[in-house]
Amino acid sequence: MPSRLTEFLAQTQLEGAAAPLPEAWTLPPAAYTLPAIFQMEAARLFHGGWICVAREEQLGAPGDYLCADVVGQPVVVVRDKAGELRAMSSICLHRAMPVVEGSGHATRFVCPYHRWTYELDGNLRSAPMMQGVEGFQVRSARLPQLALEVWEGFVFVNCDRSAEPLTPQLSGLHQLVRNYRFGDLVISGTAEFDSPWNWKVLVENFMEAYHHTGTHQNTLESIYPARDSSVPDNDDQPWAFLRMPGLVDAEPPVLPDLSDAQQRDLFAAAVFPTFLFAGTASSGVWYQLEPHAHDAMHLRVHLLLPQSVRDAMSSAELDAALELVRGVHLEDIEANDGVWRGLQAPLTVQGRLGPYEKAIWQLNRYWLRMLA
After folding, report:
1. Residues 17 and 130 both lie in one domain
2. C-alpha atoms less than 13 angstroms from C-alpha of 315 in its C-beta half-sphere
3. What is the pTM of this model?
4. Please, which of 219, 274, 276, 306 could form a disulfide with 287 given CB 3.0 to 4.6 Å?
5. Last residue of a domain, one of 126, 158, 190
6. Distances, alpha carbon 290 to alpha carbons 15, 61, 135, in Å
7. Residue 73's domain is classified under what CATH number?
8. What is the domain range of residue 144?
9. Helix (H, G, I), strand (E, B) or coil at 48
10. Longest Cα pair distance anywhere in the chain, in angstroms?
11. In total, how many domains does the chain have?
């Protein structure tokens, strides 16, 4: 695997992306289109970074589990018999078969290949017909564990168990979103999309309101004008926050604890590299990205509501609320398709970033720190 970005990107290109915002450029097209760059991202961003894989309410009871893919690393998150959340590799220690897939409830994980059985904490319980194998001890074997943290109801994992804890790195972001009480929300509907682009195309689109003027000119722009949006400093913490003041008062019911301004605002936030969420006075959304290659990812867009609100809504009302969220992303799909085609054109070069793209600049600085 390549060890340095300068094997593929010119030093002047990297310096342009790292420059102060008034002088900054985008990342060069090769940062999106080269498989070798994605391999570096997999090793340094995804296997060494904090990735959101679940909501805590999805794992409410001991034995509840959920599987995810962290760029080629299959992971299972489970609430063990003691009620503790754990994350571990879901690959059998014997012949590399997944021991569990999907989501559900279990008392143990049993590999379907040779029936090796694991406890919910990952310890190997039994390995049939392995008697006589020299040096093999069932009780000393355990599925590789991942670091795990819960923040605002979101479950993050990190393949690097020695990684710096996540929560202190989000202290600034917490101050901006705490009134929305995301920990009290629950998934109330999900729309899924297979997305044939580089993951950064979607993250960048999510983190700027500048494109409201074009992509969403007949929808979001009339309520959340791009010219009013702003992005605060993040003090080089690994997050970005986009505030989009609204022109219309929120319809009830609204979340408690919000300021007058927050009751009209839309915000979008990112925890780098791929955790995206947004909120209004009445609901939230979580964009769950699973990158698979430099040109492919799977996206789940989850609608988040207070439990009491979800319980009071009919199926038709929930479907309509999800369709609004889905409709916004359908508009973004057309834009992201266009950007992805453009990035692969031979005459495409770095572009200049504007003042309304500060969050992209923050993402690029993080990307350069982690990869360079």
Report:
1. no
2. 0
3. 0.96
4. 276
5. 158
6. 29, 25, 38
7. 2.102.10.10
8. 51-158
9. coil
10. 74
11. 2
